[in-house]
């Protein structure tokens, strides 16, 4: 379960493999591939929770459309909002993860919702964007009716995943274009 959440942690980030491809380019003007460095600025989930580290690097491909920024992390393309200034953007996402199903051991059903939010600024209002900066946050909370007590550090936990639930993590992101958009 910990590995599943770790693999999903990068939904808007990040840790993904596949490339933009024709699907994303059709959704806007490709801006290129960016190498992103994230520095953790806050973490109420606990040191190392979900495999999170203080420094995090990944690649993302961006495209810009009318009032939209498309963020391709390799696993999915997320459409964000691009402000009228054509540099300010915001992106939101949501993932539900079944940590445990049924009443079989090791316990009753538990699912966790992760809400992702990023806001930042592209380095240029045109199509030749060389960099961007952003702030990304992740919020984790058990879904209604979930029993996730044994995943939180304490008397009931045998393999804690979180120091607390609900909890969150914040990252400051800086990115430089590592590959130009396809021609």
Question: In brief, what are we looking at here?
Answer:
The protein is mainly beta.
What does the model show?
This protein is mainly beta and 183 residues long. The protein has two helices and eight strands, in the order H-H-E-E-E-E-E-E-E-E. The protein has helices spanning 2-8, 21-25, and strands spanning 29-43, 55-65, 68-72, 77-82, 88-100, 110-122, 131-142, 167-179. Strands 1-2-3-4-5-6-7-8 form an eight-stranded antiparallel beta barrel. The longest helix is centred in the first third of the chain and has 7 residues, at 2-8. It is elongated, with a radius of gyration of 18 Å. The model is unreliable at 1-25 (pLDDT under 50).
The sequence of SSEs as H and E is: HHEEEEEEEE
Strand ordering within the main sheet: 1-2-3-4-5-6-7-8
Which outline best applies?
elongated
Report the end-to-end length measured between terminal Cα atoms. 41 Å
**Model regions low in confidence, pLDDT < 50 over at least 5 residues:** 1-25
- What is the averaged pLDDT score? 83
Q: Roughly what fraction of the amino acids lie in strands?
A: over 45%
Helical amount: under 10%
Strand tally is 8
Structural class: mainly beta
Tally the helices.
2
What is the radius of gyration computed over CA atoms, rounded to a whole number of angstroms? 18 Å
Oligomer: single chain
Largest sheet: 8 strands, antiparallel, barrel
């Amino acid at each position: 379960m910990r590995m599943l959440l770790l693999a999903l942690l990068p939904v808007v980030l990040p840790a993904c493999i596949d490339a933009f491809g024709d699907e994303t380019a059709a959704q806007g003007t490709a801006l290129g591939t960016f190498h992103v460095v994230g520095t953790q600025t806050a973490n109420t989930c606990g040191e190392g929770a979900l495999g999170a580290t203080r420094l995090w690097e990944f690649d993302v491909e961006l495209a810009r459309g009318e009032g939209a920024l498309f963020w391709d992390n390799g696993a999915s393309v997320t459409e964000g909002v691009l402000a009228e200034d054509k540099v300010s953007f915001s992106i939101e996402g949501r993932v539900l993860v079944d940590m445990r199903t049924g009443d079989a051991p090791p316990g009753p059903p538990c699912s966790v919702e992760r809400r992702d939010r990023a806001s930042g600024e592209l380095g240029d209002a045109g199509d030749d964007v060389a960099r961007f900066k952003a702030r990304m946050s992740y919020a984790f909370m058990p879904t209604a009716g979930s029993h996730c007590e044994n995943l939180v550090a304490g008397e009931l936990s045998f393999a804690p995943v979180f120091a607390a639930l609900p909890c969150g993590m914040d990252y400051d992101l800086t990115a430089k274009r590592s590959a130009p958009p396809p021609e």
